[in-house]
Specification:
By secondary structure, this protein is of the alpha/beta class. It has 4 domains: 145 residues, Resolvase, N-terminal catalytic domain (Rossmann fold, 3-Layer(aba) Sandwich), CATH 3.40.50; 115 residues, Putative Large Serine Recombinase, Chain B, Domain 2 (Hect, E3 ligase catalytic domain fold), CATH 3.90.1750.20; 135 residues, no CATH class; 111 residues, no CATH class. The chain is 44% helix and 18% strand. The longest helix has 38 residues. The radius of gyration is 32 Å and the shape is extended.
């Protein structure tokens, strides 16, 4: 029983599985039943907490695992944190609204709620399972009810599985679906009404939409001709081709999905759901299910062209993950691309919007960006980012030393490959291997008691930056540095301002957690010739506060970015940025 000084309170949990039930009477029925029980029993119904899982299944138990998505999970979290007073009531229409899992996890859930001082009330039939009751009859009744609920769901799942198997068999044979499985169109040959965007259903059969099929053919033709995904998007945008469906514009992801989609050759791959969001293949693909837009040869040619383009890009390993570098003007991304200027090919960061024909191309040289950002990351004291004023933890130093020893081992191995084996090299190698094993052991121990787990990533990052230019295997070094950077950097926001052929770039690096950042201004001077001779290209990087005023602007904020753009456009370069 609850403390007499504390008024009893009830929480109503409402759930049903099918979204179609939202149009029926289930919500009203459960709501009114909960309110009526509270009124009869003089219990206050808490209306500040909405516990609705509408259209959510309880068969697999997902509804009690994620408090950000499911009301029951959120309620259980409140109970665990002591936010729900002992002696409270949880109202449900019947126990299968609470869960339809297998009887063991179902009973465990039921008992765990009672053990935390919350009584469970069912309104149909009306019964109170009290948290302080010793009556085993309650437990027996709960086990029977929960087992019945799970049995019903299992039976329905089995029936649906057999129906789906029969529908797949009909589709494999090219036969119409049985009438009981498709009441909308007699003689339908479709398993599902979820169709590709270039196909519509006419008389129960999939039929091409001529205008959209023509666009799909054009996309495959461009892919076979060597167009990259972004160039295809730009071409469609330039030609004024309307995007499919409700999309406002063409995007890279849309084109990628079309080019990789086997439905374009008429193939359908049955799938089944495993867990909450994962789908896996359910049997072999069904050829000729859809009308084909392109031939098998055309589809294969497009995939081959895509693979060749991917190989060329792979010659330069970008140090920053896709999506990490953002455009402060519109929140979009910057991507590395090859830029042609007066017949010379250079690598540059280019806004995604401009690659897709939706915005202005304000690029920045990739080599300058990488060199400038890495030089500043190498200078940062990691403890200012991780620890504030506290002292360093041992894992930071050990991780840096371990990366240094790894680099030494690679150099010794390379030297042995180039000049042959020798006793001196063997001795150096054995000593370094022993040092490596000792550091690895100490680092493992330090990491177990380290308060700040990002310390080792910082140590590795700064050591890799220092050794990048002299690494025996540059590709491997860049891959490792890319992995380390992804662990410490959350995002990098750029605001690029053209200054003739030169570029001024405000760069704000946000570290993991989104609370600490460092801001810089990078000036890139392009090479050029004049009457005094040829001027070589150069770059400089300074702290944001040294160039553009106080370091209090957040480039993730569009208003701040617009304000800074005006300031940079009117900036008279200080002496430190002049030659």
């Amino acid at each position: 029983m609850s403390d007499s000084s504390t008024p009893e309170v009830a929480y109503s949990y409402i759930r049903f599985s099918s979204k179609k039930q939202a149009d029926g009477d289930s919500l009203r029925r459960q709501t009114e039943a909960a309110a009526a029980w509270c009124e009869r029993n003089k219990v206050r119904l808490d209306t500040s907490t909405t516990l609705h899982d509408l259209g959510k299944s309880a068969y697999l138990g997902e509804h009690r695992k994620n408090p950000d998505r499911y009301a029951l999970a959120a309620f259980l979290k409140l109970v665990e944190r002591g936010k729900v007073p002992r002696g409270s009531y949880l109202l449900v229409e019947n126990l299968d609204r609470l869960t339809r899992e297998h009887v063991r996890p179902a009973v465990t859930l039921f008992l765990s709620i009672l053990d935390q001082g919350v009584s469970i009330v069912t309104t149909s039939p009306e019964r109170v399972f009290r948290h302080d009751s010793d009556d085993m009859t309650d437990v027996i009744i709960a086990v029977v009810e929960l087992s019945r609920g799970h049995g019903e769901s299992a039976r329905k799942s089995g029936l649906l599985g057999s129906v789906w198997a029969e529908k797949k068999a009909c589709a494999q044979r090219g036969e119409a679906q049985p009438a009981r499985h498709n009441s909308t169109v007699a003689g339908s040959r479709l398993l599902t009404h979820c169709l590709p965007t270039w196909v519509e259903e006419v008389g129960g059969k999939p039929v091409l939409i001529p205008s959209r099929a023509a666009v799909v053919k054009q996309i495959f033709a461009l892919a076979r001709g060597g167009y990259g995904y972004h160039r295809i998007v730009a071409k469609l945008t330039e030609d004024g081709v309307p995007p499919f469906g409700t999309a406002k514009h063409w995007s890279r992801s849309t084109v990628v999905n079309i080019v990789r989609d086997r439905r374009a050759v008429g193939e359908y791959q049955p799938c089944k759901r495993v867990g909450k969001n994962k789908r896996i293949k359910d049997g072999p693909p069904i050829p000729g299910y859809y009308p084909a837009v392109v031939s098998e040869d055309d589809w294969n040619a497009a995939q081959g062209a895509r693979g060749r383009k991917r190989g060329r890009v792979g010659k330069h390993i970008h140090l920053f993950d896709r999506g990490m570098i953002r455009d402060a003007r519109d929140g979009g991304t910057y991507l590395p691309a090859t830029k042609t200027d007066n017949g010379k090919h250079t690598r540059a960061l280019i806004p995604t919007a401009s690659l897709e024909g939706r915005g202005k191309c304000v690029s920045f040289p990739l080599a300058t960006f990488e060199a400038a950002v890495l030089s500043k990351l190498r200078e940062i004291d990691p403890h200012e980012i991780l620890n504030g004023d506290s002292g360093p933890d041992e894992s930071l130093t050990l991780a840096g030393e371990l990366a240094r020893v790894e680099a030494s081992l690679a150099l010794i191995s390379q030297e042995m490959d180039d000049h042959g084996e020798s006793p001196t090299l063997f001795k150096r190698l054995r000593a370094k291997e022993e040092e490596y094993r000792d550091l690895d052991r100490r680092l493992t121990e330090a990491q177990q008691k380290a308060i700040y787990p990002l310390s080792d990533a910082w140590g590795e990052t700064q050591s890799l930056i220092a050794a990048l230019n002299s690494a025996p295997d540059p590709a491997d070094a860049r891959l490792r540095l890319r992995s380390a950077l992804s662990r410490i950097v959350e995002s990098i926001w750029l605001l690029v301002v053209p200054c003739g052929r030169d570029r001024l770039c405000a760069c704000q690096v946000w570290f993991q957690g989104g609370e600490r950042q460092r801001s810089y201004v990078i000036l890139h001077r392009s090479p050029r010739g004049n009457r005094h001779g040829r001027r070589e290209g150069s770059w400089s990087v300074r702290s944001f506060a040294d160039v553009a005023g106080p370091d209090d602007l957040d480039l993730r904020n569009r208003e701040h970015a617009a304000k800074l753009e005006k300031a940079l456009a009117a900036l008279d370069f200080p002496p430190r940025f002049q030659e």
